[in-house]
Amino acid sequence: MEFILILLLVVVIAVGVWGLTAYNGFIKERNLIQESWRQVDVELNRRYELIPNLVETVRGYAAHERNTLEGVVRLRAQAQQIAAHEGGAAPSEARAEAEEQLSSAVRGLMVSVEAYPELKSNQNFLELQRALAETEDRIAAGRRYYNANVRNYNTRTESVPTNLIANAFHFEKATYFEVNDPEVRRAPDVSFGEIAYRGDEPQQPGQIPPAAAPQLPNPQQAPQIPQQQGYQPPSYGQPPQAPQQQGYQPPSYGQPPQQ
């Protein structure tokens, strides 16, 4: 009887220790999510501060982009209003959607100013463009870190047996800060057909043609041995005749030499 009581006591203590560890783990991961979101929120607020200066600079050189400028200003005010309402807490779906629309509008504004060379050479605009590019890079890096922490936290809230602690103490799933803009997710298109060589295309003047491909031998065709001209095999049926020397007369030993 005492053994059973001791065993039950050990089981209760083990379950209590596990529950306390799981609870502290949820608290730690939730605080990590909030901390990682603050880093993203700081960069988003920095972008709010840069956009008005960018709009005023573009307006001085590109008055025809009135609709684009008004859209950027409107989306900035909308995103800033949602951020003030949430008070720096983890982002909601409305905040993520507003920030996504604002990012798309700013990219569209940067594309439209390509038609204004004077604006592209303006020092103030170049500085704002560089600052915005750095801010967007920090936002993207912070978003990846935040979403990684959210994934770990949500996995624990749905996994067994930690989901028992999550349900008992009301640890709800966190919201991802995702980007659903197809222009951001789309990979750059690379057409290999444009760089491939086509033999039927006309050659441009001054263009060096590519080297011709070497002709491989045909294994079905036997190689031809060239015949040597002017060569006659010797006839073994007749003895060879010594060549006669022209202009040579043997001396006569029966007659004395003439004086």
TrEMBL record:
It comes from the Bacteria. GO terms for cellular component: membrane. Gene3D superfamilies: LemA-like domain (1.20.1440.20). Pfam families: LemA (PF04011). It is found in: Membrane. Residues 197-259 are annotated as: Disordered. It is a single-pass membrane protein. The keyword Transmembrane applies. Keywords: Membrane, Transmembrane, Transmembrane helix. Residues 213-235, 243-259 have a biased composition (Low complexity). Belongs to the LemA family. This is LemA family protein. The lineage of its organism: Bacteria, Bacillati, Actinomycetota, Actinomycetes, Propionibacteriales.
